[in-house]
Amino acid sequence: MYPSLLSVGVATAPNQLSASADADHAGADDRRSVSGWAIMLAGAMIAWLVKRWLTTAISNTESEFYSVSQCALDCVYLRRIMELLGYE
Predict the structure, then answer these.
(1) Exposure pattern of 57-69 as b/e (b: 16+ CB <10 Å)?
(2) pLDDT, tens digit (0-9, with 9 covering 90-100), for 8-48
(3) Secondary structure of residue 60 in the 3-state scheme
(4) Which residues share a beta bridge with 24?
(5) Could you tell me the pTM of the whole model?
(6) CA dist., res. 60 & res. 35, Å (int)
(7) Do 38 and 45 touch, CB atoms closer than 8 A?
(8) Per-residue confidence band for 57, with pLDDT thresholds at 50, 70 and 90
(9) Which of 25, 52, 23, 26 is nearest to 37 (CA)?
(10) N or C: which end of the chain has fewer CB within 10 A?
């Protein structure tokens, strides 16, 4: 993840979730895609992942889709946890 993708120093609401995701299509020697994402709550990083996929993506769009879909799954999960704890 590039530091410019993270919302460090940006004013956010107290319970606001924000996320950034990025992927590199077949950039390594083994032609596997690398993807990563970060989830921030009120500007503080609370979850992240960097992963080299076991399957080879056909295109850059597919590798980006893997990254964004995994990030969205974790955002939904964290949002539900926050609702269970009583946050808006």
Answers:
(1) beeeebbbebbbe
(2) 555 667 778 889 888 887 766 777 788 889 999 887 889 99
(3) helix
(4) 34
(5) 0.72
(6) 11
(7) yes
(8) confident
(9) 23
(10) C
Phi, psi of 6 (to 5 degrees): -85, 145
Which amino acid is located at 85 in the chain? Answer: L
Give the phi and the psi of residue 84 in degrees, each rounded to 5.
Answer: -65, -30
Nearest partner of 41 among 74, 2, 84, judged by Cα: 74
The residue type of 3 is P
What is the bridge-based pairing of β-strands 17-24 and 44-52? Answer: unpaired
Distance in angstroms (rounded) separating the CA atoms of residues 65 and 45: 22
Q: Is the distance from CB of 88 to CB of 15 less than 8 angstroms? A: yes
